[in-house]
């Protein structure tokens, strides 16, 4: 197992005797770019075995610091030949629980415009190119007709689940079958449903029609385990794919520590709270990089990155047993209900376009399952969106700064001297070593970022989350109806009092009606503020939190 090579001596463990030698001969360790200087002091005898060993170790240290990879054995050299192909992987599109079978839905992944729709004839979700072959109108603006076909709303062309055009209204029935031409077909992407998520293969070439038989999307068993409940959500982010993954992999920054407090079981909350309030050293280790990702560990948590989209971590029983072996008092204890509790934090990070990404999250757990049956999903999304908002603006600014220096210069511009950055550095190493240093957009984009938007647009929630979440969208509509209902009651009560003659109702009843009108009006104003803050826009000020 190899430790992620972070360009700082603090992250590499050296023998204690070697530390003392380096302290006395600091010139033995040169800078990252300069070769090891030759010492010509008469007091330093090169003929002794000890000193030759010291020089050999110094040379090894210099090599480790000069390169981003610790260890350069032959298998590692062979792995460097294998490169990551961005268009030969499965990508998540959307969670099934937030899709509507009645309407086609537009999504963008890896720069590709997609339309996701339910084919009731094949009983499956389909992913098409979001472009009608007739006049290139977006099929996502169309409808599902009475025969279960995808219909373009512009001129009414209809397509089945295989992308074949089945009906052209303007074509004469006794004329040539123009609808059967290959030019009338829609590009179809291979798709499947796994872990409750629609996945697609970003190549519509017919030779990839059965690619699912050769390669499947990453599978996490706990997401389909009936003994677990899971909390799901999605959000379109105002920054790119690389920044999104780095942010999720950073266990030390304050909003993420707060997020861990929200999700952590009671036995871990006190320990996690230390991270948020004062911080503590994190002994985070990353194992050997591979083209398909890498694995890390922190205390009892196992971290896994499955390229290019899946990152998750969980409490690993194997790591827990190793930690408990050193404690004799707990070694022979039978497993308790608390020790059998398991929870996962699973993130699907989707590249959308330069400066845009999409996050899908799913948090399965096998305890406190009753909460999910009582508390609606949109209540949880309030806190989760607040956590995402806390990072949104400064990560957008950070992304623009990184664009100025170039993605290949990340390790030069960012100072990462502690082990808590190991996962982030590991991701950058993987990106540079196997994936070309950045997302491959297939030539569709130059890679330059769009201009930095104002804060109001960065923190916007309605179009980035609410319209894409069935729970939040339903709550938004219900609360808007409640707001209007309170206003109607308030106006009706005031009108009734105004139109009623003095002698018809007593003074006490009149005062009660006026009080109800005032309370309903105040409640409607509070509800309006709550709706705007929860579902539209809420600025995040770190200085006031």
From TrEMBL:
PROSITE patterns per the UniProt record, alphabetical: RIESKE (PS51296)
One Gene Ontology cellular component annotation held by this UniProt entry: chloroplast
Domain Rieske: 90-200
Localization annotation: Membrane; Plastid, Chloroplast
An example molecular function term from Gene Ontology annotations: chlorophyllide a oxygenase activity
Record key words, sorted: 2Fe-2S, Chloroplast, Iron, Iron-sulfur, Membrane, Metal-binding, Oxidoreductase, Plastid, Transit peptide, Transmembrane, Transmembrane helix
Origin organism lineage: Eukaryota, Viridiplantae, Streptophyta, Embryophyta, Tracheophyta
Superkingdom as given in the UniProt entry: Eukaryota
Protein name: Protochlorophyllide-dependent translocon component 52, chloroplastic-like isoform X2
Coiled-coil region(s): none
Keyword Amino-acid biosynthesis: no
Organism: Cucurbita moschata (Winter crookneck squash)
């Amino acid at each position: 197992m190899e430790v992620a090579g972070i360009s700082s001596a603090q992250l590499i463990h050296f023998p204690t005797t070697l530390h003392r030698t380096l302290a006395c001969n600091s010139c033995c360790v040169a800078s990252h770019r300069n070769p090891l200087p030759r010492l010509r002091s008469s007091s330093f005898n090169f003929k002794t075995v000890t000193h030759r060993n010291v020089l050999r170790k110094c040379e090894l240290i210099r090599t480790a610091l000069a390169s981003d990879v610790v260890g350069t054995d032959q298998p590692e050299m062979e792995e460097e030949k294998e490169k990551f192909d961005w268009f030969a992987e499965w990508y998540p599109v959307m969670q099934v629980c937030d899709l509507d079978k009645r309407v086609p839905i537009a999504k963008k992944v890896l720069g590709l415009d997609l339309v996701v729709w339910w084919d009731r004839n094949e009983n499956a979700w389909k992913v098409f190119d979001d472009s009608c072959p007739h006049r290139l109108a977006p099929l996502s603006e169309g409808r599902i007709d009475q025969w279960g076909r995808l219909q373009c709303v512009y001129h009414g062309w209809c397509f089945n689940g295989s992308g074949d055009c089945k009906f052209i209204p303007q074509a004469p029935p006794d004329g040539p079958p123009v609808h059967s031409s290959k030019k009338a077909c829609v590009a179809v992407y291979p798709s499947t449903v796994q872990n409750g998520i629609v996945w697609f293969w970003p190549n519509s070439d017919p030779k990839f029609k059965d690619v699912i038989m050769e390669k499947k999307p990453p599978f996490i068993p706990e997401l389909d385990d009936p003994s677990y409940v899971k909390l799901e959500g999605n959000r379109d982010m105002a920054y790119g794919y690389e920044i999104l993954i780095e942010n999720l992999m950073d266990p030390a920054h304050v909003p993420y520590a707060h997020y861990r407090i929200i999700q952590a079981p009671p036995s871990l909350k006190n320990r996690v709270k230390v991270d948020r309030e004062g911080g503590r050293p994190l002994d985070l280790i990353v194992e050997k990089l591979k083209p398909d990702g890498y694995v890390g560990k922190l205390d009892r948590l196992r971290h896994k990155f499955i390229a290019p989209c899946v990152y998750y971590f969980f409490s690993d029983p194997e790591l827990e047993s190793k930690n408990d072996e050193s404690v004799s008092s707990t070694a022979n204890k039978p497993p308790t209900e608390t020790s059998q509790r398991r929870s996962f934090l699973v993130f699907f990070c989707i590249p959308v376009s330069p400066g845009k990404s999409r996050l899908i999250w799913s948090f399965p757990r096998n305890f406190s399952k009753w909460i999910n049956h009582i508390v609606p999903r949109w209540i949880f999304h309030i806190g989760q969106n607040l956590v995402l908002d806390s990072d949104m603006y400064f990560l957008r600014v950070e992304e623009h700064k990184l664009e100025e220096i170039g993605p290949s210069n990340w390790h030069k511009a960012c100072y990462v001297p502690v082990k808590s950055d190991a996962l982030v550095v590991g991701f950058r190493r993987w990106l540079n070593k196997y994936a070309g240093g950045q997302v491959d957009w297939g030539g569709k984009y130059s890679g330059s970022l769009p201009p930095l938007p104002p804060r109001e647009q960065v923190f916007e929630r309605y179009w980035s989350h609410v319209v894409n979440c069935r729970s939040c969208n339903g709550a938004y509509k219900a609360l808007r109806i409640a707001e209007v209902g309170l206003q109607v009651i308030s106006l009706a009560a005031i009108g009734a009092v105004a139109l009623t003659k003095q002698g018809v109702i007593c003074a006490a009843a009149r005062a009660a009606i006026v009080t109800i009108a005032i309370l309903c009006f105040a409640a409607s104003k509070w509800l309006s503020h709550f709706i705007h803050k929860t579902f539209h826009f809420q600025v995040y000020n770190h200085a006031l939190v």
